[in-house]
Amino acid sequence: MSKIGILIADDHDLILQGLANLLVEEEWIAQIHQARTKIDVLRILQNEQIQVLIQDVKFGADDARSFIPDIRNKYPELKIIALSSLGDSASIHSVMNAGANGYVVKSESGSQLISVIKNVLSEGQALSIESQKALFKTQASPEIQLSIREKEVLKAILEELPTKEIAAHLFLSEKTVEHYRATLFVKFNVKNVTGLVKKAIFLGFWQD
């Protein structure tokens, strides 16, 4: 991983210093800048090489959701990770819709923040564990009904079996397995196998 510049934006000195002390231990971070106001954020982004902005949502007198879209338009390659005490799904959705790449709840560990930063840099978007839980609780249908075959295919997917092995194990064609996988995506409201696995485990289907 190439070394990067990070800007931490928070109006509380203790949080700024704590995050700076946490991140300075990471060898892949070249520079750490700090901002206490929106003006500071804009000035540093203009004058420094910043790849990641860690932005407090309730930022003093400002709400970051009001200026993240402008920053996103001006710096399209910048990765913005929201850091907030707000852990409800509505807040997470609003911040992500404003243009953030990631979200971390302040009550979580420093390792979660580092994990989200790395995932945002490699995959474009990432949510912390608590953020994912909040969204899954909202999105999940209280009664996801699966057929016996769908349960069998899901179990095999959770066991990380490839399509060919699932087909052989269940005496199905690979095309039929792909059909069941597609119906699982719809029922769990996910777009890929990674999302399906995360959501199925969170909802307890691993034990079914």
What does this structure look like?
With 208 residues, the chain is an alpha/beta fold. The chain is 51% helix and 16% strand. It contains ten helices and eight strands. It has helices spanning 13-23, 38-47, 68-74, 89-98, 110-123, 129-139, 148-158, 163-170, 174-188, 193-202, and strands at 4-9, 29-35, 52-56, 58-59, 62-63, 79-84, 102-105, 126-127. The strands form two sheets. A six-stranded parallel β-sheet has the order 2-1-3-6-7-8, sandwiched between helices. It has a two-stranded antiparallel ribbon with strand order 4-5. A hairpin with a 2-residue loop joins β4 (58-59) and β5 (62-63). The chain is elongated and about 60 Å long. It starts with a strand and ends in a 6-residue tail after the last helix.
